[in-house]
Write a structure and sequence with these properties.
CATH architecture of the largest domain: 3-Layer(aba) Sandwich
Number of domains: 2
Order of helices and strands: EHEHEHEHEHHEHEHEHEHEHEEHH
Structural class: alpha/beta
Strand content: 5-15%
Shape: elongated
Distance between the termini: 35 Å
Number of strands: 12
Strand order of the largest sheet: 8-7-6-9-10-11-12
């Protein structure tokens, strides 16, 4: 019987699918490296949420054939080791686009409408002082820049178009025709930064994207610009973001991801009233958790039982590894 380890809790539907395929399934709660080495020795597959899967751990797993990410990011897996051993990596490329896109729109709307300040004023009993609230705006005909045009970026674009916004896209890996087919406009990065009223990030963290948004970019943005990051911490330089928000270089920001997760309790961003924060949970709606769980389980079952590595590699290639 093939043995499947689940690292981090997943929706029960994924468990049930694997059990129906007669796999031995167990969950690991202690995510320390020493415990992972101990628990994973005889596994054939790993379903992985956010824990780090290092070379030290995987080299002690002689039977391992596939790592199935419960999500689309893969920066918590040692890809060099996977490649050196020709081990498969799967992602849930079709599961989380809707949930994350809705989270982006929620942050956009809360920030552009200054909802937190209206809420506080009303709860204080200052209903008649509503004219003291700062200006808030519409999404109608605003310029929205989407950085990265994978499934999530496209889902965000679709929803922005529903507000009659003008959607611009920077993605060097997507051609102009594909972007225009989605009724969006391809744009140069620096031109987009200058033009944008709102910006949403949807790309992986790597050497090219780390600190992609920093002081030079904030200096070019409109003073009423709003930026939201639901992709990966580190694409925005947090120190420069703090200064841009404090000095009113931009209007506001929304972060679902951080350079350090969890962030330190004394993080100075927490003291600002022009930023909205969430604990890396943009994809954790009930519906999305179920979809990710099932797709993770299906990836494992498909690979171990039904198809050759060659056939499965085609499935991997069709899954969008961009965010």
């Amino acid at each position: 019987m093939k043995k499947i380890a689940i690292i981090g809790p997943i929706h029960l539907d994924g468990w049930e699918l694997l059990k129906k395929r007669n796999f031995e399934v167990f969950e690991i709660e202690d995510l320390s490296e020493n415990n992972l080495i101990k628990e994973l020795k005889n596994v054939d597959a790993i379903a992985l949420r956010t824990a780090k899967l290092t070379r030290n751990v995987m080299q002690e797993c002689p039977n391992l054939r596939i790592v199935a990410r419960h999500g689309v990011g893969y920066d918590n897996v040692d890809l060099d080791y996977l490649n050196s051993k020709k081990l498969a990596l799967a992602v849930t490329g079709t599961a989380n686009a809707i949930s994350v896109a809705e989270h982006v729109m929620t942050m956009f709307l809360c920030l552009i409408k200054q909802i937190n300040k209206s809420d506080q004023l009303t709860k204080r009993g200052d209903f008649d002082k509503k004219t003291s609230l700062p200006n808030f705006f519409e999404l109608y005909q605003k310029n929205i820049l989407i950085l990265g045009f994978g499934r999530i970026g496209q889902a965000v674009a679709k929803r922005c178009l529903g507000f009659d916004s003008n959607v611009y896209v920077f993605d060097p890996f997507v051609n102009k025709e594909t972007i225009e087919d989605q009724k969006c406009h391809k744009i140069d990065f620096n031109e987009g930064i200058i033009l944008a009223d709102l910006i949403s990030l949807h790309m992986p963290i790597n050497n090219e994207t780390k600190n992609l948004i920093a002081k030079n970019q904030f200096d070019k943005m409109k003073d009423n610009c709003i930026i939201v990051n639901t992709a990966r911490g580190g694409i925005i330089n947090e120190d420069d973001l703090l200064l841009a928000l404090k000095n009113k270089k931009i209007l506001g920001a929304g972060l679902d991801v951080f350079v350090e997760e969890p962030p330190q309790k004394e993080n100075p961003l927490f003291k600002l009233d022009n930023i909205i924060l969430s604990p890396h949970n943009a994809a954790l709606t009930l519906e999305c958790r179920r979809r990710m769980s099932l797709e993770t389980a299906e990836n494992i079952a498909f690979y171990l039982d039904d198809h050759s590595k060659l056939n499965f590699q085609n499935i991997i290639n069709r899954k969008n590894l961009n965010l």
